Amino acid sequence: MQNASPSWLLLVISLPTTSATARMRVWRGLKALGCVALRDGAHLLPARPELEQALQALGDECLREGGTAWLMAVQARSAEEAATYCQLFDRSEDYAELRKAWKEAYRGLASMGAPELARLQRKLQREFDAALAIDFFPGEASIEAEAAWTDVNGRIEALLSPDEPRETKGRIPRLDAAQYQGRLWATRRRLWVDRVASAWLIRRFIDQDARFQWLAKPSDCPKRALGFDFDDATFTHVGDRVTFETLLASFDLEGDPALARLGAIVHALDVGGDPVPEAKGFEAVMSGARERLADDDALLGEMSTVLDSLYAHFQREARRNNDTPEAR
């Protein structure tokens, strides 16, 4: 028996020929949603609540402009027909165009200054995010594009942060936080995810009276300072751990499930790996704060509030999970 729920949405519209501005506005809206044009004025999308609302809004705009609009639920009559509909949304060519643009951009990265690199990175990220948002049936092309974007973005990050630490080997010794009070801690300036999270962790859980020095280059680190997140620093990447995770292990904080959740976010954003649902949101907040605030002390203050809130949220989730019958 066929599933009674619709699997597709079809918007059929027309606009007066005199409404050139409205036609362009509606066309841009349809393109941004990722609609497939079956014919002039007939646009198809998968049936999803947020897409239905957006299509309805475009239909309402057509009506306001004196045109017509019908939004219909369409059901595929067979598995073969459904597969044909899905194939209409193949984004392989879109990803190929993106990868071509990334390849061209890659050639000129070394000659760009930091502001230009940062602007390019934001532009390319927006374009990639837009492609992902309308890839309703992701496949091999999206996986290949993700890998290509990781390479290009990594190259940009390397140019923006040339002193990013390399992985070191060895055992992480357990340390007594009581021996690390009121100390001067130092890391590279223009904080990013691992550095800002590590500084927050130090001041919140290790050394509440910590003072920080932001370095133009690692070689500027004072001898008395405890360096973190650069090559040959006291605390840096060890094995597959980023600096935040190294600090957790060093000061016996790994047993805190909320800190472990934060560590997963930092790890995913700093070196990649398993996706973490909260990572993109944190990255967006961090990127916006970094763009607004040139002073690293102000940046640490603002992001510390974000990290405090995330930590409280993860703590509450951990307590709730421990209170379930299965945990008793």
Counted by DSSP, the helix tally is 11
Q: Describe the largest sheet.
A: 4 strands, antiparallel
Order of helices and strands: EHEEHEHHHHEHEEHHHH
Strand order of the largest sheet: 2-3-1-4
Tell me the helix content: 40-55%
Distance linking N and C termini: 44 Å
User: Overall pLDDT, averaged?
Assistant: 91
Number of strands: 7
Shape descriptor reads: elongated
- What would you report as the Rg, rounded to the nearest angstrom? 25 Å
Question: What structural class should be given to the helix and strand makeup?
Answer: alpha/beta
What does this structure look like?
The protein is α/β, with parallel strands linked by helices and 328 residues long. Helices cover 53% and strands 11% of the residues. The protein is built from 11 helices and 7 strands. Helix 1 packs antiparallel against helix 2, helix 5 packs antiparallel against helix 6 and helix 7 packs parallel to helix 8. The longest helix has 27 residues. The protein starts with 7 loop residues before the first strand and ends in a 6-residue tail after the last helix.
